[in-house]
Amino acid sequence: MKVWIKYLIGIALGIAAYFILPTKVSSVGVVISGISEFAVRFGRYSLMPLLFFSASYAFFRLRDSRTLLKTSSWTILLVFAFTLILLVMGIMSALIVKIPRIPITGERMTELPSVSIRSLLMQIFPYSGFDSLKDGVYLLPAFVFAGFAGAGCASDKDSSKPVISLFESASRLCYGISSFFVEWFSVGMIAVSCNWILSARPYFESRTFVPLVILLTVDFVIFAVVVCPLVIRLVCKDPRPFRVLYASICPLLASFFSGDSNISLQIAMRHGRESLGIRDETNSFTFPFFSIFSRGGTSLVISICFVTILGSYSGLDIKVEDVVWLFMSAFGLSFMLCSLPSGGTFVALTILCTMYGRGFDAGYLLFRPVAPVLCSFAALFDVTSALYGSYITAVKTRTIDHNEIRHYI
Q1: What CA–CA distance (Å, rounded) separates 255 from 220?
Q2: Buried-most residue among 84, 158, 159, 292 (CB within 10 A)?
Q3: What is the CA radius of gyration of the chain?
Q4: What is residue 25's DSSP assignment?
Q5: From the CB of residue 292, how many other CB atoms can be counted at a distance below 10 Å?
Q6: What is the pLDDT of residue 201?
Q7: Distance between CA atoms of residues 267 and 186, nearest Å
Q8: Distance CA 36, CA 19 (A)
Q9: CB of 396 within 8 A of CB of 67?
Q10: pLDDT exceeds cutoff 70 at 84
Q11: Is the pLDDT confidence value at 32 over 60?
């Protein structure tokens, strides 16, 4: 059975459980939330070992073959390109399609979330390199440590043969373990999807946010079905770009209901290798890089929400200088969320409103009832960017062995 079918069955059972169980009872909701948290921890369990050993061996292979610069250049270029495309799509769609005003609330949050650039930079280089492997949430320190380890082995292959063999063997072992967790996380999707509907209940009980969700859905369809395949046709001259979208079904399902980029990373890496045929050295480099830095989906979502906030508070058309400020701010914020694999979208919206001020500093509260839905859509865009971006990088660096669609997992 295809992996995406297993996940789809798990999601269907979770949705059915929501309607069968007495979810309005607080104790039932607590139990569902606890099981969902356990499932998320289960899904993340094997990520850090896989990331470190696979990325270390990938850095070694890329530097040894002298393709590290080319691979990293294409990856960085595509991260910026997809972020810019999504941000422009978000601002344009919000300006063209006028979302109805959202009723203003007088509620305020006592503690505002924030992102410390200094803290993010300091965590990249802790006092010990081994400390970078302790945090299972912020992946950048472990990725940097893996880069130094792999590149260091390539500089002296003779003395590093035992370490290289260790990285290769451990990478294969961790990949096998990760495949096991990816398969069985489909069972955890029952609790995850049930908890998602439970947390998104305010959206289902109110029609206020229906136009927003419709707009996000249309934007996603345009991006995944039109924009990305067109980019592949133009850049890669590939006559069958939609096979990437087919390989993305399972990662998209997991990312939408979990809203967690770390969980979807393992699933995307497996589909990149076994479905799309991306070779290990590229697969283990590009997917973590996209997962850490590519948050174009967040920039799209917060730009739409911010334009809606301005319209809900003032009812006036947004000015050109506000559009420029929004573009620059949303673009910069999207790269500061690397330590937040989940929930980063609402945090970014909060920071954006606080930065803008002018009486709009509490505008983010308008969207707190649908924060899980916003995070889910942002994750959808981000995973789509990662799959298409990694595929393009693999094609341009000639590190891909195409599989027939019937052989996709």
Answers
A1: 14
A2: 292
A3: 21
A4: S
A5: 24
A6: 79
A7: 11
A8: 17
A9: no
A10: yes
A11: yes
